[in-house]
Amino acid sequence: MDISISSSYGQIGIDYIHSKIDVAPNPPTGDIHYSEYGVRINSEDAKANIDMQECWADIGLKRTMRFARDNYQIAGNKTIDNIKKKAAEGNRLMRIENGKASIVPKSNYNIPRINVTLMPKHGPRIYWSDPLLRMDYHEQNVDIDWNTETRAVVNATKHNVDIFLLKEPYIDIKYVGNRVDEVV
Predict the structure, then answer these.
(1) In the chain, which end has fewer C-beta atoms inside a 10 angstrom radius, N or C?
(2) Geometric angle at alpha carbon 137, from 135 and 140, rounded to 5°
(3) What is the pLDDT of residue 146?
């Protein structure tokens, strides 16, 4: 017989995906704020206060207000004395004109005594102020702001099985002879 038969089995393909879960957590975060630790230092040197009032009093100098008060009183007295002197000179001129007084007056010169004391008898008083040192410490403050709102990212894959026909089965029958018109 001149028949050729060829056949092939069918093939089934199976794809499967395993189920899995991927969880990516978002951990809480914290913002940290802090102030610097520091020291502030203020200092003042010792100061010398010198009181010269006794020294000035020893050589005849006075305090400012006392000096001004005394000079005000002396100036007032001298002004009144000069007014009296001018009035007396005017009276004398009137007597000379009337012929009752001589032209040349008797002079009365008083030589003042001078006493010079320039060395003070007492020394100055010296007062010392204490030196000052102040230190201010600034503590370090730490503030933490927590962000506790967390969300996990979940990726889930379902289990899946795909069955498909990879190769179809077939039967191929061919006539390979030359006698197509012959009756058998």
Answers:
(1) C
(2) 165
(3) 83
First to last CA, the chain: 11
Q: How high is the pLDDT of residue 79? A: 93
Q: Which tokens in the block code for residue 55?
A: 């020294």
153-157 and 20-24 strand pairing: antiparallel
Rounded-to-integer distance, Cα 39 and Cα 135, Å? 7
As beta bridge partners, residue 34 has 142
Beta bridge partner(s), residue 57: none
Q: Is the dihedral of CA 176, 178, 180, 184 positive or negative?
A: negative
The β-bridge partners of 29 are: 147
pTM of the model: 0.29
Render 104-154 in DSSP notation, one character per residue.
Answer: SPPP---PPP-----S-SSPPEEEEPPPEEEEEEE---EEEEEE-----EE
How far apart, in whole angstroms, are the C-alpha atoms of residue 54 and residue 124? 7
Residue whose structure tokens are 């009276």: 91
Residue 129's pLDDT is 87
Q: Are 175 and 2 in contact (CB under 8 A)?
A: yes
Per-residue confidence (pLDDT) for residue 80, from 0 to 100: 93
Indicate the SS3 state at residue 27.
Answer: coil
Query: For the chain, which ranges sit under pLDDT 70?
Result: 1, 104-109, 116-118, 180-184
